[in-house]
């Protein structure tokens, strides 16, 4: 609902009809949001025709799209953003007809892929040059999960519209679309939802905000997340199935691959790792083609995090022993 509202608001305010989203994105399953979503084919299968006016472009997956150091990674990320202006706007999509660019600062279902700061900053510049609204989907990455209220804060970019849900009300059903007053210029009745403004859910959200702030949960997310990332930093060398470990705060992904050189996805092995961990009392989720998603509660402590890491470490080793021979350890790839 938050994304649907943002989509309608962007079109209403700009009087433009087209939007840009990214491959790997997940924005929801209602028709407008689904039209922006591009992470799994089963989410879209048999629902066509979807909403027209959506163009998808590449998201900067540094691990898969770029080899080398930080300078190469930044150039790759900038190239992904500049493709919009240098190619798309000059061939098939007039910029004056684009209402908004929808982006997840950290892709959730796409594999916990982190957008480099340079990419987000270039998107902001492109939007400013062409009068396009930048919409940050923070449904998975917001509410303190990455160590800041919103993941986009890590990039020093201010979006025009922010979408939030999930953690913002600690699991109570609430979606929020937030923007400046000058953008929210639609007349009363232009948008509403059946359950919008539920007082119980609003109370839960207000209480959640108080707890996050008063109990320093963003600082905890940063400290425990950094602790976990440090403990797993050598896994791409230690484990033949681990291609990459990346994350911000308590939003961490461990990408499982069959081969370090080809980076071939290893979905079956990833799924088995998650099953083994579940049998040992630790719940992980998958995301992307073959990434293990680590997203503990914001109140998690270092001892609990260590216990989870040890279980995951063990389960990866078990699956490696039973898997066909893979390319050996290689240089870690950072996000």
Tell me about this structure.
The protein has 335 residues and is α/β, with parallel strands linked by helices. The protein has two domains: 2-213, 3-Layer(aba) Sandwich (Aspartate Aminotransferase, domain 2), CATH 3.40.640; 217-322, Aspartate Aminotransferase, domain 1 (Alpha-Beta Complex). The protein is 39% helix and 16% strand. The chain has helices spanning 2-14, 31-36, 62-65, 70-91, 117-130, 199-214, 217-232, 235-238, 267-279, 302-322; strands spanning 18-22, 54-57, 98-103, 106-107, 113-114, 133-137, 161-164, 176-179, 242-248, 251-256, 285-287, 291-294. It has a six-stranded mixed β-sheet with strand order 2-1-3-6-7-8, with helices on both faces. Strands 9-10-12-11 form a four-stranded antiparallel β-sheet. Helix 4 (70-91) packs parallel to helix 5 (117-130), helix 7 (217-232) packs parallel to helix 10 (302-322) and helix 9 (267-279) packs across helix 10.
């Amino acid at each position: 609902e938050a994304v649907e509202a943002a989509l309608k608001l962007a079109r209403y305010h700009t009087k433009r009809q087209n939007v840009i989203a990214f491959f790997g994105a997940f924005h929801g399953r209602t028709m407008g949001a689904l039209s922006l979503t591009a992470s799994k084919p089963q989410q879209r299968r048999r629902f066509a025709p979807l909403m027209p006016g959506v163009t998808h472009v590449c998201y900067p997956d540094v691990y898969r799209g770029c080899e080398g150091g930080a300078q190469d990674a930044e150039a790759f990320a900038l190239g992904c953003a500049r493709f919009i202006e240098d190619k798309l706007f000059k061939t098939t999509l007039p910029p004056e007809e684009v209402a908004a660019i929808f982006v997840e600062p950290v892709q959730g279902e796409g594999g916990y892929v982190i957008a480099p700061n340079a990419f987000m900053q270039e998107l902001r510049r492109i939007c400013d040059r062409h009068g396009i609204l930048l919409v940050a989907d923070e449904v998975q990455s917001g509410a303190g999960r990455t160590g800041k209220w919103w993941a986009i804060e890590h990039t020093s970019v201010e979006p025009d519209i922010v979408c939030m849900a999930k953690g913002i009300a600690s699991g109570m059903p609430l979606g929020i679309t937030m923007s400046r007053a000058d953008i929210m210029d639609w007349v009363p009745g232009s948008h509403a939802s059946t359950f919008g403004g539920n007082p119980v859910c609003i109370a839960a959200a207000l209480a959640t905000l108080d707890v996050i702030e008063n109990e320093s949960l963003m600082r905890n997310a940063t400290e425990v997340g950094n602790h976990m990332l440090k403990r797993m930093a050598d896994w791409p060398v230690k484990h033949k199935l681990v291609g990459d470990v990346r994350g911000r705060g308590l939003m961490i992904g461990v990408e499982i691959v069959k081969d370090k050189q080809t980076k071939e996805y290893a979905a079956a092995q990833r799924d088995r790792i998650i099953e083994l961990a579940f049998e040992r009392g630790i719940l992980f989720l998958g995301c992307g083609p073959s990434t293990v998603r680590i997203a503990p509660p914001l109140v998690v402590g270092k001892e609990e995090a260590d216990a989870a890491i040890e279980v995951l470490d063990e389960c990866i080793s078990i699956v490696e022993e039973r898997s066909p021979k893979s390319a050996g350890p290689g240089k870690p790839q950072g996000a």
